[in-house]
Amino acid sequence: MLEKKVFRQQQLTKLAAQKEATKEAAQHLLAKLVQTSAWKNARSIGVTLAGEIEVPTEALIQKAYAEGKKVAFPRTLPKRQMIFLEALTEADLERSSFGVLEPKYVPERIVSNLDLMIVPGIAFALDTHYRVGFGGGYYDRYLKDFPGNKIALVAPAMAYPTATWAVEAFDIPIDQLITL
């Protein structure tokens, strides 16, 4: 069992080498996602603006808008907290200290009643649904009290039969993993 920090570094290298395959998997994962009852019943969705080694989310976001769903994006806050806000145009976004695009903080755009969370990660255990993220625990803290559905899109390079990393007490399992 690898320490999570060591596993994360190895996995990031693996994902960088597999980023084209991950991009190719995205349309198949989205096709499966939109067939789920969680997607069909969701009126509001939380999703990240994916980085280059993650499953791309642009088509998912466009599909949600086309179906009239409200879409909100994460913004990190001090003390490892996170909120979700609507961002309707590129002007509503800014680059965070982590180098990712986040919505600008506008209190009126906070969305607190999301039905579905598309949870990012770099590795997922298929048996227990535990994940490894980018570190920091933002999603685990947020998901601890999240009442909606939690789904992850898992490209082949991210899928593990079981966790080969140390699962910690504060890790939150994902309700459903969408795989190829």
What's the CATH topology name?
Answer: Rossmann fold
Mean pLDDT: 96
Q: How far is it from the N-terminal to the C-terminal residue, by CA?
A: 26 Å
Helix content: 25-40%
Q: Based on helices, strands and strand pairing, what is the structural class?
A: alpha/beta
Outline: globular
SSE topology string: HHHEHEEEEEEEHEEE
Strand order of the largest sheet: 3-2-1-6-9-11
What is the CATH level 1 assignment? Alpha Beta
Q: Which percent range describes the beta-strand content? A: 15-25%
The second-level CATH architecture is 3-Layer(aba) Sandwich
Number of alpha- plus pi-helical segments: 5
CATH superfamily: NagB/RpiA/CoA transferase-like
Total beta strands: 11
Rounded to the nearest angstrom, the radius of gyration is 15 Å
What about the largest sheet? 6 strands, mixed
The number of distinct structural domains comes to: 1
Low-confidence stretches: none
Pfam families: 5-FTHF_cyc-lig
Family: Belongs to the 5-formyltetrahydrofolate cyclo-ligase family.
GO molecular function: 5-formyltetrahydrofolate cyclo-ligase activity
Cofactor: Mg(2+)
